[in-house]
Design brief:
Layout: H1 3-28, H2 31-37, H3 42-49, H4 52-66, H5 76-89, H6 91-103, H7 111-122, H8 132-144, H9 154-169
Helix pairs in contact: 1-2, 1-4, 1-6, 2-3, 5-6, 5-8, 5-9, 7-8, 8-9
C-alpha cells in the first residue's frame, strides 16, 4: 500500500472516530462502526490503532492541537469568549472533552494557566476571592455552559459568557 493511501486511510479513521467518540464516548463507541464509516475493515482499523483506547488517544491528541485558544490570565473574559466561540463552531470538541472527563481518570494538566492566574491575582488584576485553580475551573465552566445545545442567539450568549467571567474575576 502506498504511503499516500495509508495516510488517507488513517485520516478517514480519525475523522470517523471523532464523530463516533463525540456521539457515544469511549465505552459506547464501536470499532466496527468506525471502520464502516471510514470505508475500511475493522481488522485494518485495529492494525492502525490497536484498539479503541489508542484510537481515542489519537483523536484526543489531534483535537487538542486543533482546539488551541489563546490564554491570557489578564483577559479571562476574552479567553472565555474565545473558548465559547470554539465550542460553538465545533460542538464535537466539547462533547469529546466531556467524554474524556467522564470516562478517563486522568486530568489535563493546566499548571501553566493556574500559575498565570495566580500571578494575575498577585498583581491585583484578577480577584483573589477564589483560588487560581477555582478561577480556572469556573471560567471553563462558564465558557462551556451552552456547548451542548443549539444556539439561536450566539452573540447574546457570547456577551453573557464574557460579562459573567468579567464579574467573576474583577478585583
Amino acid at each position: 500500500m502506498h504511503s499516500r493511501d495509508r495516510e488517507r486511510t488513517r485520516r478517514r479513521l480519525l475523522d470517523a472516530a471523532l464523530v463516533e467518540f463525540a456521539a457515544y464516548g469511549i465505552a459506547g463507541a464501536r470499532m466496527e462502526r468506525i471502520a464502516r464509516i471510514a470505508r475500511c475493515s475493522a481488522g485494518l482499523a485495529y492494525n492502525y490503532y490497536g484498539g479503541k483506547d489508542e484510537l481515542f488517544d489519537a483523536v484526543q491528541s489531534e483535537v487538542v492541537g486543533a482546539a488551541v485558544v489563546e490564554f491570557d490570565a489578564r483577559d479571562l473574559p476574552g479567553y472565555a469568549a474565545r473558548m465559547y466561540d470554539l465550542q460553538h463552531r465545533h460542538p464535537e470538541f466539547a462533547r469529546l472533552a466531556t467524554w474524556q472527563r467522564l470516562e478517563r481518570r486522568g486530568s489535563v494538566s493546566r499548571v501553566a494557566e493556574v500559575e498565570a492566574i495566580r500571578s494575575a491575582q498577585e498583581a491585583g488584576v484578577v480577584s483573589s476571592r477564589f483560588s487560581a485553580e477555582q478561577v480556572l475551573q469556573l471560567v471553563l465552566a462558564v465558557a462551556s455552559m451552552w456547548s451542548n445545545g443549539t444556539c439561536s442567539n450566539h452573540l447574546e450568549r457570547r456577551r453573557c459568557v464574557e460579562e459573567a467571567v468579567r464579574r467573576l474575576v474583577e478585583p
